[in-house]
Design goal:
By secondary structure, the protein is α/β, with parallel strands linked by helices. It has one domain: Spore Coat Polysaccharide Biosynthesis Protein SpsA, Chain A, CATH 3.90.550.10. Strand 2, helix 2 and strand 3 form a beta-alpha-beta unit.
Length: 237
């Protein structure tokens, strides 16, 4: 059976990026190495994002939308995408387009031998403060998880759906997706991808929540790892 892909796009107040997002995702669908579709998760936007996405979905049956009643956060949006995807693969990209949907093909080339492929942002176009805080957060996470991934905050990933759907979600778990696949005895790898400056909208994370959030989440991960149950069925009659 051939793989197919659902691209999950969480968004919160990204109306200034919607038109460009539509164009970039449509361009990728034409060149994707596998049959692909897009699932937008509107995380309680208070601007015009929802109405703009609805118009896009009405014009293209490969685009779908799920809207939350409130703002529940990135991890909840990703989980909703995992729960509702019906394809063998799920991908994830941020609506700010600081990564390029075309680079999903770089990840797809590696997924046959892996259960999760994550991007690593090269030549990052963020501020010095943002780069430093991300470096510190990634270093802390690697010490706690030993996942050997350099940039789990990169918003460009592809995961096999059967692994994604078994990830127990909690707030902040989006930083630990490779580690959670490793807990399932899965295979993970990373691939260099392009990175761009944000040209519209506002960043949703500041300096302190880039550091304190990951540190607190590391302790949540350790608790999860200690309690985690992984099983495989040998026979089912």
């Amino acid at each position: 059976m051939k793989d197919n892909l659902t691209i999950i796009v969480p968004l919160y107040n990204e109306e200034e990026n919607i038109d460009r997002l539509n164009k970039e995702l449509n361009a990728f669908l034409k060149i994707s190495l596998v049959d692909s579709q897009v699932l937008f998760i509107n995380d309680g936007s208070s601007d015009n994002s929802e109405e703009l996405i609805k118009k896009i979905c009405e014009a293209n049956d490969r685009f779908k939308l799920i809207s939350f009643k409130g703002n529940y956060g990135l991890s909840a949006a990703i989980k909703a995408g995992f729960d509702n995807a019906k394809t063998s693969l799920v991908g994830y990209i941020d609506a700010d387009l600081q990564t390029n949907p075309e680079d999903f093909n770089l990840l797809l080339k590696e997924i046959n031998n892996n259960d999760l492929v994550t991007g690593v942002r090269t030549s990052r176009k963020d501020s010095i403060i943002k780069n430093i805080s991300s470096l510190i957060a990634n270093t802390i996470r690697k010490v706690f998880t030993n996942d050997k991934m350099d940039d789990t905050g990169c918003p460009l990933k592809i995961i096999r759906s059967d692994f994604a759907k078994k990830i127990p979600m909690f707030k902040g778990i989006h930083r630990f997706l490779p580690a959670m696949v490793l807990l399932q005895k899965g295979r993970v790898t990373q691939v260099s991808v392009r990175h761009y400056p944000r040209i519209a909208g506002k960043a949703k994370f500041g300096f302190f929540n880039r550091l304190t959030g990951p540190l607190i989440d590391c302790f949540a991960y350790l608790w999860m790892k200690k309690k985690y149950i992984n099983y495989q069925i040998k026979e089912n009659e």
